[in-house]
Amino acid sequence: MKVIVTAPRGKMGKLITQVAASRDDMELVAGIGPKGRDYIGTDLGTVAMVGKELHVPVVDDLESVIDKCDVIIDFSTKEMAMEVLDLAIRHKKGLVCGSTGFSDEEMKRFEDAASSIPMLYAANTSKLVNVMNKVLEFITKTVGEELDIEILEMHDQWKKDAPSGTSKEMGETMAHALGKELSDIAVYGREGVSPREPGTIGYHSLRAGNIPSSHTVFFGGMGERLEITHHCYNWECFARGACDCAAYLANKDPGYYTIKDVLHLS
User: Which residues of this protein are catalytic (predicted)?
Assistant: First the structure.
């Protein structure tokens, strides 16, 4: 499989490049950086700190290299991701997108893309986070109506969107298990006189220092509570998952895929 990685100097793009370079089933053919960066025109291995040159260029024009690839792995910004999506559709290339912070209308564009390309969107590519989502679905279907549900998510000071895409996905999983839409029952933070409304899902976002991704879901009952937590020690688990997602798209027909399909959790 021939792969293009966007934002190879970024936190995720760098690790995805390193993981992809180590796999026998993948060949990196280009890296895509934002226009104006000083590393444009240099070797992808150097930019992503792989430890060796890969003899693969980093360019700032995806359209100039897109026909060399089978799949694009995009963990960039929401603005860049929409440009990548448009080009993937135009050139009929598979796309794995892990960028977050999109509006409902922007997410609809990813879903619509599935009519013409293999499209896999994953707010979180960690295997254990997605196993956790399956556990959350089971708990909510079983006893969710009896419990108060709260989500605490923690990230570093640089994360732009709040709440995180992962916590939104968790909330959507539990809301659907209750037969509801997250947009109808989510409550974001509290201040002043703010009694809890039954049947809601509360969100709390913490941003500080270089805290790695951490998500806890609290199921509060009378006299007891259950906490399900995932801690990410580093970002390699997400990079490995992203490459697994790209590999899954090999020879797939156009369609909207998720990491649940990759992990056989559907």
Answer: 155 (proton donor/acceptor), 159 (proton donor)
Instruction: Mark whether 264 is an active-site residue.
Output: no
Q: Per the residue annotation, which of 159, 176, 180, 252 is the catalytic one?
A: 159
99 annotated as a binding-site residue:
yes
- The rounded percent of the chain whose pLDDT value lies above 90 is 92
Q: Which string of b and e fits 7-44 if b means at least 16 CB within 10 Å? A: bbbbebbbbbbbbbbebeebbbbbbbbeeeeebbeebb
- The string of DSSP letters for 178-228 reads TTS-HHHHEEE---SS-PPPTT-EEEEEEE-TTPPPEEEEEEE-SS-EEEE
Q: Has 125 been labeled as part of a binding site?
A: yes
Let me know the angle formed at the C-alpha of 229 by 224 and 231, rounded to the nearest 5 degrees: 155
pLDDT digits (tens, 9 = 90+) for 208-240: 999 989 999 999 999 999 999 999 988 899 999
Check: CB of residue 32 under 8 Å from CB of residue 252: no
Of the listed 14, 155, 168, 204, which one is catalytic?
A: 155
For residue 23, pLDDT over 80 is answered with yes
Whether 124 has a binding-site annotation, put simply, is yes
**What is the CATH topology of the domain spanning 127-231?**
Dihydrodipicolinate Reductase; domain 2 (3.30.360)
Each domain of the chain, given as residue ranges in start order, spans: 2-125+235-262, 127-231
Beta strands (DSSP E) in the chain are 2-6, 27-32, 58-59, 71-74, 94-97, 118-121, 148-155, 186-188, 201-207, 214-220, 225-231, 255-257
Instruction: Reply yes or no on whether 159 is catalytic.
Output: yes
Q: Is 122 annotated as a binding residue?
A: yes
Q: Model-level pTM?
A: 0.83
171 is in an annotated binding site: no
Domain boundaries 2-125+235-262, corresponding CATH code: 3.40.50.720
